[in-house]
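Can't attach files on this board, so I'm pasting raw text. These are the components:
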Amino acid sequence: MSGFLPFWPEQASAYAASVDRLVLAFSALIIVLSAPVFLLIIAFAIKYRRGKPADRSHPMNRNVWVETSWAVIPFLLILIFYVWSTQLYFGLHRPPADALEIEVVAKQWMWKFQHAGGQGEINELHVPTGTNIKLNMISQDVIHSLYLPVLRIKQDVLPGRYTTLWFNADKPGTYRMTCAEFCGTDHSVMGGSIVVQEPDGFSLWLETSATDSTLAAQGAALFRRFGCSGCHEPHSSVRAPSLAGIYGQPVALNNGTAVIADAQYIRDSILLPNAQVAAGYAPIMPTFANVATESDLIALTAYIQSLATDNSRSAPIPTNIAPEGTAP
Amino acid sequence: MSALSKTSEDGSIIGLEHEPAGETRHERESYLRAGHTLRSWLLTTDHKRIALLYLVSVTFFFFIGGLAAAIMRVDLLTPEADLLTNEGYNRAFTLHGVIMVWFFLIPSIPNVFGNFLIPLMIGARDLAFPRLNLLSWYIYWLGGLFTLWVLVSGGVDTGWTFYTPLSSMFAQGNVVMAATAVFIVGFSSILTGLNFIVTIHTMRAPGMHWGRLPLFVWSHYATSVILVLATPVLTVTLALIAAERLFGLGIFDPALGGDPLLYQHLFWFYSHPAVYIMVLPGLAVVSELVAAAARKPVFGYWFVAYSSIAIAAIGFLVWAHHMFVSGMSMYAGAVFSFLSLVVAVPSGIKVYNWTATLWKGHISLDPPFLFAMGFIGLFVVGGLTGLILAMLAVDVHVHDTYFVVAHFHYIMVGGTVSAYFGALHFWWPKMTGRLYPVFWGRVTAVMIFVGFNLTFFPQFILGFLGMPRRYHVYDQQFQVLHVLSSTGATILGFAYLFPLIYLLYALRHGTPASANPWDVTGLEWTVPSPPPKHNFERIPLVTRKPYDYEVEKEEQS
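---
Top answer:
Structure tokens for the assembled complex are below.
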């Protein structure tokens, strides 16, 4: 489409193409609905100009049926498009389970991307074509919004809460990435690019950008440095729940309810440990709110996620995990 | 003949008279000459004088807000940050938004024309609470002075939306002062809304039952209901921001245990209805102008009257369509998308009914009617692009881009400002007693239409191409469209200055206006131009419907 229509933005995913089809079809409808207004106003202004003779007999001043029809018929036509667009939107909010996950931290005024293999990027995001990618995003300060125009998607990035965005890019290239939510002084330069590569090229990039340790391994180091291991590992003097195998599982709470131990719960439990205390434990954990950055919290979560289901009570420090194997 | 269809003594049409412009008898006896001292103006309780005080005040703020826009458009000529710094640009668009929304668009038509015309249209001698009316103007200026203080003390950089936690914890500028200004001016809105509601309920002339009210009054009634119900929510929300910023009370900042989306819900619960506060008075004006232009009753009076009420009611249920990418539940998104499509129905009814009103009319192309037709065209584009934005999947792409900027400027500037100028050109002879040069009025109407489209149509394309709003450093590919937009803004700027010249010229040198220079219906045209201090010598008895034109007489001519 971008080839033969001037002023049409590039598309780099099947989803982008389907949004564009919706835009074109809906634009056609609204032109049909509005053309009579434009044409008739001009035609009437000419034909019935004051002082000009014209057939003005039997003017109508009301007609309930005519009025009802021009209220209802356009609305029903628009509802067809409502269903179409809402389905696309729902699809955008249901990321596939096999997606390759990339962690995103936004802060004034930069984007930080963290791959599971430990590769980190600033203001640049490498992704392979033909792969479902899911971004888990959080902000360290104000609200930002990750906007990828070629994919026709954006999602606000909130402080204190993970939001997600998923896509499947199919056209290699380097495209614009911007912040869409006003975030302060350097908002208009808080951008960068998304680099979409063929899977081979992406693997090569992963290898050349590899660091000493995976994200989970970085988390394990933090787990020791912050002293988490002192309480959460077996045989410690303080009684704290074991974290092995809890990720994604329900956790019974002191107040009788239960939550799923997802990234949000783990993050909140590190920052506000006494808000949702596991059943049978005393609320004695201190907060790490002034110690751990959002990037630290992501690494710690990745580490806890990596702890295998209960086969090793002593938390192992994992070695390099191949990025392909990290999707849950 | 009823009071409604009585015409002036000489029945002259605007621009055809060429008598010397001395002071007429009506002028000597008018509200304008009832006291010459400054005190007689600043302590007046006459709704007509207060309307003129507002006219001067909102014009002042319109040009301050316009100046900020002009600086931005010059800055946007190039993709680099050359005229303004990043911080300077942020402060410019914040002031532009704050001033234009709260100090021009919201008070403009209601406080100038609503104030002047509602008592005249319903056959009353003043509003129900004349002193409250004056107080509302003083409160407006108190808020205005705070805003000017913010302006000279370095400005504020949050955007007019004051999104948290940026505004409450991170922004550098004078946020508390700006929030205070908006907090104060809100009370002015509430008082005006209350005054209109009570006046319309209790002070209609004998025989002026609800089915005989001009549509102008219906729309102002709907506007007033929103002013009274929505503004307090904004007041509370701004107070909460100040509390979080000053005392660290955790309401919106998650670092303090708050929720930033709570702020957005509260803010848009006011600010989406506020959009209807801004546009319903425009719809009010255009209903009057279309009937006057066609010399016909408005097609489907009751549909148009109730559509205003429907817009006001449904307008309260669509706020979260500003939050489709905010992280809100997708099911909430689906509900608010649907309701946003529903609110378009009554707007559609108005547009189709106006078009039908022109059918078989006697259409005049005098300046006010050109403004009205320009309004319809721009309002249709603004409204339909609003439907595009209500579509969830499309909104995800164009949300917070120039597409949104273009959309709401088509409604607010193309719509409301065109209606404001239409009203100014229609009722100016009534307000001042003087006719203005029709030729320059037509030139201005056409220039505003052309300049507006050149300014804002390219912004739809910019937004769809992915240019975010509130960016002054931008990608090279967008420059052509930005230059087009700035060119249009130059035309628009001159077009806005013209009326200032010829209307003020007409004040002194214009031909005196008859009571009914446009030869139209409506009680306000039965009193002399300008009206006497107490409007009506005898309270009129209304026996006919509004827009009761004599079709037969016209057809024979």
